[in-house]
Amino acid sequence: MSVRRCMACLALVTAGLAAVIAPAKAAGPALQTLEPGAFREIAQNLTVNVVLVGFDRPGLVDTAALQAALPASYRSIHRYANFYGRKEPTGNRFAFQYRVVKAGPAYADALFGYLGSIATAQPRTLFQNLYNAQPGKALAVAQNHAIDAPMTEAWLANNPPPGIDTGSYTVYLINGFGRPDFKFHVYTKTDLVDPDTGYNFGVNRASRKMVAWGGTPRSSGPARRVWFYDFSAGPESFNGNYNISDADLDGDGVADYRIPPIWEYGSYRTASALTADAARLTRFVAINLLFTTSPLYKPAISAPKLPSTVNIDLNLFQGDPTSDARSLIKPAEVVAQLGRLQSHNRFTAGVRAYPLDNSVARVLNCFTFGPSCYGNKLGGANFGDLFLYAESHLLQYLDGSGDYEVPVFHFNVINDLAGGLLGFADDNWRDGTQSFVFGFDAPALRAAGYGFTTTTTHEVGHHLGMSHPHDGYDSELDLDYSAGGNFYYAWSGDESNTIMSYIDLSLNFSQFDQDNMDRWMTAAYINQANVILAKITASPRAAAAGALLLAADSAASQALARYAAMDYRNAVAQAKTAYLQVLSGAAAANVKVEPQAWQADYKAKGKSDKFIDRVDYVHRLAP
Predict the structure, then answer these.
(1) What single-letter DSSP state applies at residue 468?
(2) Residues in CB range of 104: below 8 A, 6 or more apart
């Protein structure tokens, strides 16, 4: 008998003996909410209010037709995995009930009386003047007025019509045109300066005069979830409705669908299209991009062992002799804002500066101008050169802090090397998992108002899962879309109180951002608990974890109860408690649980032409 056959025989005998003498596996405790090995989708019924103010004239808006055009449901997915053909639900799904109401003349009088009281006469904006210069316009904008956007949002949140609870998601569609007290107007937010440059975009940029706003988080008291769009404001820059002459503003070869000011219905657009446009804004902006959006990347970073501490590794490359990159970043501000987005985690940041040496400068030059420094890797796409450099040198740039580290590479360079970008959050060029964050600053960008703090917060927001408020996913249509072509009007989503927009009027994450993150992570914690539970129940030491698993199950039940009540912040806290108790149970049962993160597997390679967040300078750097 050969040695190999003898060894096989010994193995078979040993296995057989083990089957005979091994004790019976202890059954785990009976659980009510957690399900070992199962994937749970948390279903929620959500009321969405659509309040029309100033649309009382018969035939102006058909409320039944508007409601019929709205989605019955939403199921969120990981968008970037979807680009790679991987349909991955997050575990969150919704069924919508709508209240579409006309607020009535008395409410309109109260609202427009308030707006009139806070309106201040201002010169027409550049974009109102551009509108006036077009021969095909329906009328000429006369004296302009500025109305404070956050004050308007607060009034709408605190003074809803009877029967409307603004703790539920609420869209206000407003029209004051034709009233005797109507004033041409735009909405403004002027109380914020860039933390690095002191630049005030709300004051200095005509492109930041708006027709919509919402999503401001409250520092205390119950959450309010309001976004308004004023058809009678503007015309404005961001959604392009100042231009009624050119079909293709962004030059992508596709005619833009833009929402005109109210007086252009019957001229630029047929009067009968107003109802459909109101539905477009409600569905494709408010619901899909703000209220119940899908994450760009998986929020469950490093699953199955999810982090409690996240360190932002800020690596600054000094390539501009006129400035020090360390003066252009406020790590404490970045950490504070990320901590508000994910209150269940603790964030830290470390800053290290390096000279832009020849090797890094060469890669940056290839990235900016091409061709690729890496030949045909990643298909020869020079946009992947920064990824390839970071991938092969990653361990030089991680400082070892935190359960999870976000590798950030910032280049403070001369104008030519900035490459027309502020920043982007890359994936791994393989399956749509987040990888590195890159940012750029240069003299021209600083003159335009930009440092690294807002770019860092925005791009790390992407890394953690956040999408822009101008691109997203419609689950019933299985359609991923961005602002352009038939969805050009999706730029209106940027007129909300979030740093994920391009409008530069906010340092924080909106109430909508916080809701979405808390919901995604509630599902993530419960589902990763289920993954680990399957390993525990398969262990012969499962009984040692029994009490911990029962406590985890109780916390998971409380999480779902808080989630159903729209108390998402406490829901995610309870879900994390459940998850941590399951982790403790795994330790008690001697079941090993490890993180599976990019940083733990940095040698993984792949090929893709996917990337995100090329900055659109038509909007970010508009006058």
Answers:
(1) P
(2) 56, 161
**579 within 8 A of 528, measured Cβ to Cβ:** yes
329: three-class secondary structure by DSSP: coil
Q: Could you give the 3-state DSSP secondary structure of residue 390?
A: helix
d(CA 468, CA 491): 10
Q: Which residue carries 């829901």 as its tokens?
A: 571
Distances (CA, A) of 616 to 284, 398, 503: 20, 30, 11
| Per-residue tokens: 282 | 């409600």
Q: Give CA separation, 340 vs 346, 464, 469, in Å.
A: 10, 13, 18
Question: Quick one: 616 exposed, middle or buried, by C-beta within 10 A (0-12, 13-18, 19+)?
Answer: middle
Where are any strands of DSSP class E within 103-168? 120-122, 144-148
Q: What is the pLDDT of residues 504-531, one digit of tens each?
A: 999 999 999 999 999 999 999 999 999 9
Instruction: Give the neighbor-by-neighbor strand order of the sheet with 120-122.
Output: 120-122, 144-148, 184-188
- Which residues fall within 8 angstroms of residue 525, CB to CB, at 6 or more apart? 306, 559, 572, 575, 576, 578, 579
Long-range contacts of 325-329 (CB under 8 A, 24+ apart): 325/353, 325/410, 325/412, 325/441, 325/452, 326/351, 326/353, 327/196, 328/196, 328/197, 328/412, 328/441, 328/446, 328/451, 328/452, 328/453, 329/196, 329/410, 329/451, 329/452, 329/453, 329/456
Query: Rounded to whole angstroms, how far apart are CA atoms 539 and 550?
Result: 17
Q: CA 532, 572, 344, 506: dihedral to nearest 10 degrees?
A: 130
CB 488 within 8 Å of CB 229: no
Query: pTM of whole model > 0.90?
Result: yes
Q: How many CB atoms lie within 10 A of CB 4?
A: 8
Q: pLDDT digits over 195-204, tens only?
A: 999 999 999 9
- Nearest-10 Cα torsion for 266, 270, 275, 279: -120
d(CA 532, CA 528): 6
Cβ atoms of 168 and 225 within 8 Å: the answer is yes
Neighbouring residues of 590: CB distance < 8 A, sequence distance ≥ 6: 539, 541
CB proximity list for 465: less than 8 A, separation 6 or greater: 295, 296, 297, 298, 299, 517, 520
Sign of CA dihedral 234, 237, 239, 242: positive
Any residues with CB less than 8 A from the CB of 18 and at least 6 apart, and which? none
How many Cβ atoms sit within 10 Å of the Cβ of residue 43?
Answer: 13
Show the tokens assigned to 55. Answer: 């649309």
Sequence-distant contacts of 243-246: CB under 8 A, at least 24 apart: 243/130, 243/131, 243/134, 244/131, 244/134, 244/136, 244/137, 244/268, 245/134, 245/136
> Any idea which residue has 């703000």 for tokens?
290
State how far Cα 431 lies from the chain centre: 20
Q: Is the Cβ–Cβ distance between 289 and 383 less than 8 Å?
A: no
What is the enclosing helix (H) or strand (E) of 367?
Answer: helix 358-369
Burial class (CB in 10 A: 0-12, 13-18, 19+), 23: exposed
Answer whether 169's CB lies under 8 Å from 49's CB: yes
Residue 44 has pLDDT above 60, yes or no: yes
pLDDT digits (tens, 9 = 90+) for 262-287: 999 999 999 999 999 999 999 999 99
